[in-house]
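Run: sequence + thiamine diphosphate -> complex structure.
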Amino acid sequence: MQSSAVNSSNNKETTRSITFAEAVREALSQEMREDQDVFILGEDIGVYGGAFGVTRGMIEEFGPERVRNTPISEAAITGAAIGSALTGMKPVVELQFSDFITIAMDQLVNQAAKLRYMYGGKGNVPMVLRTPSGSGTGAAAQHSQSLEAWVAHVPGLKVVQPSTASDAKGLLKAAIADPNPVIFYEHKLLYKTQEHVPEEAYTIPLGEADVKREGTDVTIVATAVMVHKALEAAEKLAEEGIDVEVIDPRTLVPLDEKTIVDSVKKTGRVIVVHEAVKRGGYGGEIASMIAESEAFDYLDAPVRRLGALPIPVPYNPALEKAMVPQMDDIMQAARDSVHRR
Amino acid sequence: MTQADWMWEEPKEKLVDWLEQMWTVRWFDEKVDEFFAKGMIHGTTHLCVGQEASAVGVCAMLEDKDKITSTHRGHGHCIAKGADPDRMMAELFGRETGYCKGKGGSMHIADVEKGNLGANGIVGGGIPLAVGAALTSKMRQEGYITVCFFGDGAANEGSFHEAVNLAAIWDLPVIFVCENNQYGMSGPVKDMVKIENIADRASGYGIPGHVVDGNNLPEVMTVMKEAVEYTRNGSGPVLIEAKTYRWKGHSKSDAKKYRTREEEKEWKDKDPIRFFQDALIERGIITEEEADTVKKDTKARIERSVEFAEQSPEPSADTLLEDVYA
Ligand SMILES: Cc1ncc(C[n+]2csc(CCOP(=O)(O)OP(=O)(O)O)c2C)c(N)n1
Ligand SMILES: [Mg+2]
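>> structure
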């Protein structure tokens, strides 16, 4: 069993390293310099620089017309972005916490997602809604959720969930260029993670998964922070002689089914892991996609899913941690899969 | 005689109690601030230092059976509605003895027995809930009224408009109290609202609206007293806007780049606690020494809350799945 860590762009000595938050800002700024129609709007994105500092310095460069600091009115902000997109602009909304998407949901689900189809293929909605998600910060039940499966369920919305700074930069450029509404999740625990990110603008197409680590024994399909936990688990499992392949779909909609199916055909074993509540989570979609695919005949063990317990996110740090899959859970699932327990 | 003169006729114990409550709120939040600065508490918090008079003045005019809905900046409301600071502090420490068994934290403290239906992490999230609580009171003729606290920022949420209109057309016993502390996070109210007073919106819903100096306890109480009478006798909702200022940053980390230190100083000169304390001393109701004792005792009270919290157990992992359903 061999393992080869694949992270080709990580040549730290010679290359510039920036954080996830900086990568998002760089993508936004580059697009805004290129295209006058691109603008950003959201709560506290001006001098405050956004709740997580992503837009810091942008109002100084682009001014208040293109960095629009809004009242606390999620439905109106999102709806106005959709309306401006429909009429030619390319807005990028920052929704302060992804939990507040509930307030913007009518505009996203009943308006943005459907306008083009309902109008018989006329008009499009080139808007992006960026929003921080996930637990681990002690912000409790109303500021820690991972509701990506809700939007992924709705035809007409694209859903992006990057796990690294360099992916975030390239995917955001693709999301802004896309003529459709895109929900772009940024996990709060990733904002400060740092890696090499090319300075020039580049695109990572929506719908291309990334094999974050090649392996032969078991495939782990993981999203957002779980990609990092899966990679850590993979390193440890290598010591036990289990060679793990880690796949990050990067976009849930569209989903790169081929990369996942090919991997499972190779390894014969698969674990799907996300931070969102397991019940009704997107992992169920990925698992059944695998079961319905030609990979079925190659499976040597049942498809396994890991996700959060079906509870609101608790405040107490130990409880908060206990709610979501940890590295040890991933390791155990991999062992169980390999040894078919 | 100014309008607020009625209150100086109140028994000394009551007046001192109000002063004590304001100090308790102040010390509680100062302590929490200290703990967050030291990284001793998980998550985030929103402090109401500088806004004590609106929390205390509003709740002081309520009866025990009355209810409130609170906000993310809710420690003051909670204490003023009669909560035990020990259990509040324990909640911030994430302990089992906390009001939410350690599952809620600063933004979700609820003290249902005392009529506090809870703080809220969603801006504007509590406004429709308050209307619902008022609806229960009306339908079951329970005679209680509900006070709905919210911020200037929350007044721009759709939930505010929908809820106030609903309460107005159904003549529900609810008092909407907007604590206008001049900012919604970094958003200055003067940029986010096109009118001078949020209370002016009341006329758009056909209900009375009042603006009050939120740092002046006697004035807050006077306006509130009238509103309570009006609402309790079935006349319907009232909107009160208390103009005030938060001394601290919005939450745990805030460089406060959106306002000046001079502006902060101007407002600190209008300290609601000092204002009331000086008035009590000037009127000969309490002595300087008595005022000092109140200040010291309330501070010591909060120290005891910290001890209680520190000595309380962590919630056991078995409680993880509890309370999702009844
Ligand atoms: C629906 C929603 N939008 C945004 C936020 C983030 N947020 C929390 S408090 C706050 C400012 C609220 O301002 P205001 O209502 O004036 O209350 P204050 O903080 O001044 O007490 C914001 C933007 C939130 N918690 N909920
Ligand atoms: Mg405010």
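>> summary
The interface with chain A takes residues 42-44, 91, 94-95, 100, 102-105, 107-108, 120-125, 153-154, 156-159, 184-187, 191-193, 254-255, 257-258, 314-315, 317, 319-321, 324 of chain B (CB under 8 Å). The mean pLDDT of chain B is 97.
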